Amino acid sequence: MKKTVLALSAAAVCVASAAPVLAEGQNPMTAPVQISMQGEASMTVANDEAVILFSAESRRPDAVSASNDAAKRGNAAIEALKRFSDKIDVGTTGLSTNPVYTRAKEGEVSEIGAWEARETLRVTVRDVSVVSDVLAAVVGHMNYEGITFRVSDKAERAQRDELLKAAVADALRQAGIVAESIGRKSSDVSVASVRIGSHSAGGPRYYAAPMMKAERASANVAPAVSAGTTEVSLTVTVEARLPR
């Protein structure tokens, strides 16, 4: 399977206009010049968490039988996942039962021909090394629909300090360039304020193609999946000043 690399969205670095900052009663000729700069930093981080979606569907002549069958498959999957309890979180995200109507002929009215029940599970895997084993454990009971790999909140927080330092340094570097371009020294730049803003997105996604049906699975074969990496970015806006 080819490796997929997804990136978090990143704001572009830009230079804002320079303008004098006036206090009440201050002479505009002596007021400091304000420079608004946007700095950015990014790093590639290994995805350390996965979210897997499973589903079970059943069509039976009556609603109770369909619901019981779907629930039975879901319960079996949850039971099979118990051996990973220290590495995963399991939650039921959907449980529904709906009528399936017959196709009516001209002049006739559609009738309920069967009932279809569906149960969905969401499994968050905190250790990506067991993703294939989790898939293999469930595939005999439910269908797996897709996997999303991502950077956990814990891992992202661990990188935040370094990203913040680098983003501020990037903004100040640009402010220094602006200062030098108007005949001043970069050392003349002073920081008035810093605003922090970041945005993140999901990681690589693996789809079962075609979706493996539990009733057609001849063996619990663990598919090979790659967690990939995510580019984590952080942006800051620095309001800097230059004395006149």
**Helix coverage percent of residues?**
10-25%
Could you name the ranges where pLDDT drops below 50 across 5 or more consecutive residues? 1-23, 208-212, 214-220
What is the CA-CA span between the terminal residues? 60 Å
Q: Count of DSSP helices?
A: 3
Secondary-structure element series:
EEEEHEEHEHEEE
Query: Strand percentage, roughly?
Result: 35-45%
Please state the overall shape, judged from the principal axes of the Cα atoms.
Answer: elongated
Main β-sheet description: 5 strands, mixed
Number of E strands: 10
Q: Using only CA atoms, what is the Rg?
A: 28 Å
Write down the CATH topology of the largest domain: Alpha-Beta Plaits
Average pLDDT for all residues: 81
The CATH architecture of the largest domain would be 2-Layer Sandwich
Number of domains: 2
- Given helix and strand content, the structural type is alpha+beta
CATH superfamily of the largest domain: Protein of unknown function (DUF541), domain 2
- The CATH class of the largest domain is identified as Alpha Beta
Structure summary:
23% of the residues lie in helices and 39% in strands.
